[in-house]
Write a structure and sequence with these properties.
The complex is a heterodimer of chains A (about 350) and B (about 575). Chain A has about 350 residues and is mostly helical. Chain A is built from 16 helices and 2 strands. Classes of the chains: A mainly alpha (about 350), B alpha+beta (about 575). At the A-B interface, helix 2, helix 7 and helix 8 of A face helix 1, helix 8, strand 17 and helix 15 of B.
């Protein structure tokens, strides 16, 4: 297993190099003037594009330019984002924690609910629970997130005043920006707990509920459907029949035998889901006025903020590679044949 | 499941219709435009200026709706100069402002007459291109710019120092020529700053010999994110991530502390979120235009103050004559090859006329403007010298005319090759978005080789890109700085004005007419000159007035004390927060 893990880790820099090369190749479609914005660290330089083109050799052969750019990226110097009004590396640090926090509170409930409902749906095929689960799947799959988000906002905030939009309320805003509040992790729920601010913690959680529910509902649908079909397939296989014939309790047959084999496609799907969540859901973030990385990335794209787009794309690519690595490792945990094969 | 459903339904029904005042000491205003820059000598957009006017103070102010000289009230000056009180000289050229004592800046230092002098000098000598400095340069120095051939005029600093002096506790300003609206200008511009604080923050040190270094600075070389005024509120935090500005009460304010302790100005792009926050009482007022009126009408505990007439031109479409091609994705290839437009695309009059003929003015007013707007005929609003109610709008919706014009534009090359460009609007502006989409649909319907992308920018980026001349066309509005026709003619048509500097538009004939009109005392003659300027604008079409009308304000009913001040920036959405308080 260790050998397998090390091998996968060894591939990581190569994959990242490939990703950066691909991104850089895409950049070559832009004019040198637009690429020059990647080397702007101070907005005062925005009117000195010709000097920057000269300095960084933006009309030189691509490998030379790539080497230079890679060195810059390795130093964490990703240019200045006009959209965020700060250097890209700072913008990532400012926007990503909110998205990460939302992902943390959403991802595991999505997994739990999706898998549980999928298993129940398969086990109780064509019965009420199955129909109910399929209804959830169909509505979740077909309902656009802006419709669901707005509906939730109108009922649970507009009418009931339970869960407001934004990242936190007025009192928490004053608290977290006041002296004495230490930002240990950037994750506000955790920071509030570490600072012993229980009411602020409750407030932050309140603000997470609606975006989390929106993401949960629309994301759970796919997981539910895949789990259901995967479980149905496994439950019809010979080894399940054998397990039942051996007299194993049904619970063990389902959870220990069938579910374990059904998990492989779910690992792939979960990896894709985590990437999607960590990249930020722009519609959810916009509707709930949630200052996450997705909204910034899309604004950067709309405003042709090349450093911003590249920064958020690099982050997404990095997350993608990491999530794939985790998925590969999980494959090995779930299916021993994979690590033996490696 | 049923219990849960019942609980939710019961909870919905149980919510009381009225509610107690929420956060009584905090006022939250939700808008669509983030601030561009908070330096009073640099900022010239309403989003920024409304914050500036709550943090800094001027010599005078308009405390109510009136805009006449007799409506002015003293602020940092202790008296409003007039000939009657002897503070304006008989020749109308010398103004004396006795300066108030005991006024404290937010950093605790005391305001002195020298600070006032420094602030007026800095306002003039900083003079960024297209900025507000000309408002004081014109009356005091008789020049619209401090620069000649791109460099600071050698004697301009000395002239300014001679024109603004301190005599004991009085600041004396000597004008170049009589300028009737001078006092009105000082009610909105020339905010008083602390010289020592500015210097400590890397700004001009107040010496004439160093002025050139600080002339026409870039945005980042200004006090764009730091403030230290004498006003009722101080800047607590400018948060680019939450897109929020927090102002805190200045407890040592000389007029007595404001009733509100905290002001939050927050950018929320999504209308539904703004509306729900207003409904829930988490916002006290929101920025909304006519297109959303019906959705706000009848909301419980929300008060709509309708039919507010400002002194303004609401929506005007501007063409950029010299587009900046550097790193500019809005003009595609930058050539007339079917994949872009050349930087001087709109220098061709036929191209401009074609776009002007592609706007459905009536439909726009009906559908987007709630029927409360109509096509305007010129750049002058009603009530000002030169405004002619009989003047008819120059442009009308005529796609056949647009087609003919585009067939002629650039010697027929536009029609043959086609073009590709971006139409950009500022986030949250439904009017601007609708106009861009209308232009896209109508222009693209004329020839399949025409392609227009509609793109959104947040307000500060929109202002910055238009300033850098990166937008091929842009939609602008103009709210009067002071009630005079010159304050419209200059920013719309003078080569050093706010819009022409963004457009790269220059017409010596227009400049001459504007300078003649402002120096003319005879009102009939002035009106004729402004009429000629209207004709000139209609003939050349550097801009197209799209529509004008009224505005409304949506606020919680617990908000009290709102006064509609026609020249206060971003009125009626934003406010002079010192007036406001919250009570049932």
């Amino acid at each position: 297993m260790l050998k397998y893990v090390l091998k996968r880790l060894a591939f990581l820099p190569l994959v990242m190099a490939g990703v950066t090369l691909l991104l850089f190749a895409c950049l070559q479609f832009l004019s040198p003037e637009m690429r020059a914005s990647l080397y702007v660290r101070d907005p005062r330089q925005l009117n000195q594009m010709e000097a920057i083109i000269e300095k960084y050799g933006l009309r030189k052969p691509m490998p030379v330019q790539y080497g230079r750019w890679l060195k810059q990226v390795a130093r964490g110097d990703l240019g200045y984002s006009e959209t965020a009004k700060m250097p890209v590396s700072e913008a990532i640090g400012a926007f990503f924690p909110a998205t990460f926090e939302l992902t943390l509170v959403t991802f595991f409930p999505i997994l739990a609910v999706g898998v549980a409902l999928g298993v129940l749906s398969a086990v109780y095929k064509d019965r009420f629970l199955d129909h109910a689960s399929r209804f959830i799947a169909v509505t979740g799959y077909s309902l656009p997130s802006f419709v669901l988000g707005l509906a939730l906002l109108m009922v649970f905030y507009g009418r009931l005043h339970w869960f407001p939009p934004g990242r936190y309320g007025l009192e928490t805003d004053l608290l977290v920006h006041g002296a004495g509040f230490r930002h240990w992790t950037g994750l506000l729920t955790l920071d509030c707990l570490l600072n012993g601010r229980w009411s602020a913690f409750a407030d932050v959680v309140k603000h997470l509920v609606l975006p989390a529910c929106t993401l949960l509902y629309i994301s759970v649908a796919l997981l539910l459907r895949i789990t259901r079909s995967s479980m149905l397939e496994e439950l019809s296989k010979d080894y399940v029949r054998t397990a039942r014939a051996k007299g194993l309790p049904e619970r063990a047959v389902i959870l220990k035998h069938a579910l374990r084999n059904a998990l492989i496609p779910l690992v792939t799907l979960s990896s894709r889901l985590s990437i999607g969540l960590l990249g930020g859901d722009v519609i959810t973030e916009t509707i709930f006025d949630f200052p996450g990385i997705g909204r910034w990335g899309v604004q950067a794209a709309q405003q042709l903020d090349i450093p911003g787009v590249l920064g958020s794309t690099l982050l997404a690519a990095g997350l993608f590679v990491l999530a794939n690595l985790v998925a590969d490792l999980l494959y090995a945990v779930v299916d021993p044949r994979i690590r033996v094969g490696s | 499941m049923n219990c849960m459903q019942n609980a939710i339904v019961l909870a919905i029904l149980a919510v009381p219709a009225g509610a107690a005042v929420k956060n009584p000491d905090t006022y939250t205003y939700l808008t669509i435009g983030d601030v561009d820059n908070l330096d009073p000598a640099w900022a010239y957009d309403t989003s920024s200026q409304h914050v500036i006017q709550n943090v800094y103070e001027h010599l005078l102010s308009f405390p109510g709706t009136g805009l006449r000289a007799e409506d002015l009230a003293p602020r940092i000056a202790t008296r409003v100069p007039s000939r009657a009180n002897g503070l304006i000289s008989a020749d109308g050229l010398t103004y004396r402002f006795p300066i108030r004592q005991g006024v404290k800046f937010h950093d605790g230092s005391a305001l002195t007459p020298q600070d006032v002098r420094y602030s007026l000098l800095r306002f003039m000598l900083l003079d960024r291109a297209g900025g507000p400095s000309s408002l004081l340069l014109e009356p005091i120095l008789g020049a619209v710019s401090t620069r000649r051939n791109g460099a600071l005029s050698p004697d301009i600093a000395a002239q300014a120092f001679a024109a603004v002096t301190v005599e004991g506790g009085t600041v004396v300003v000597r004008l170049d020529r009589p300028f009737t609206p001078f006092l009105s200008v000082l009610a909105s511009f020339g905010a008083v700053m602390s010289q020592s604080w500015c210097t400590a923050n890397g700004q001009w040190d107040g010496r004439p010999e160093t002025a050139a270094r600080f002339n026409d600075p870039r945005r980042e070389g200004t006090l764009g994110a730091r403030m230290n005024g004498t006003g009722p509120f101080r800047l607590d935090r400018l948060d680019p991530v939450l897109k929020q500005i927090t102002l805190k009460r200045h407890d040592a304010y000389w007029r007595g502390p404001a009733r509100l302790k905290t002001i939050l100005v927050k950018t929320v792009d999504e209308f539904a979120t703004r509306k729900l926050m207003l409904e829930a009482g988490d916002a006290d007022s929101i920025y909304e235009r006519q297109s959303n009126f019906s959705q706000l009408q009848g909301l419980p505990e929300v008060r709509i103050i309708d039919d507010l007439h400002g002194l303004e031109r609401m929506e005007v479409l501007f063409f950029t004559f010299k587009i900046n091609p550097s790193a500019n994705g809005n003009i595609g290839s930058g050539r007339l090859d079917g994949h872009g437009i050349p930087p001087d695309f709109f220098s061709d009059r036929d191209a401009r006329e074609a776009f002007a003929a592609s706007i459905d003015y009536e439909g726009f007013s009906r559908d987007v403007g709630r029927g409360r707007t109509s096509q305007s005929a010129g750049f002058l609003p009603p009530g000002l010298t030169g405004y002619d109610p009989a003047r008819c709008p120059r442009h009308r919706f005529d796609l056949a005319e647009a087609k003919t014009r585009l067939q002629k534009a650039w010697g027929g090359k536009v029609w043959d090759k086609g073009f590709h460009a971006a139409l950009v609007f500022n986030a949250g502006s439904i009017e601007a978005q609708a106009l861009c989409q209308m232009l896209k649909k109508n222009i693209e319907s004329l020839n399949p080789k025409f392609r227009l992308d509609v793109r959104m920018l947040q307000w500060s980026s929109y202002v910055e890109q238009s300033r850098q001349r990166k937008l091929p066309i842009f939609l602008g509005a103009w709210q009067a700085d002071y009630p005079d026709a010159h304050n419209f003619a200059f920013p719309f048509l003078h080569s050093a004005g706010y819009f022409p500097t963004k457009q790269g538009f220059s017409d010596p004939a227009a400049d001459r007419l504007i300078e003649e009109a402002v120096a003319t005392l005879d009102e009939t003659r002035r009106a004729a000159l402004y009429g000629r300027l209207e004709d000139l604008a209609a003939e050349q079409t550097p801009f197209v007035p799209v529509f004008d009308g009224t505005r409304y304000r949506a606020q919680r009913s617990w908000v009290k004390g709102f006064v509609f001040k026609p020249t206060f920036p971003a009125m009626p959405y934003a406010s002079d927060y010192y007036d406001l308080y919250k009570a049932e």
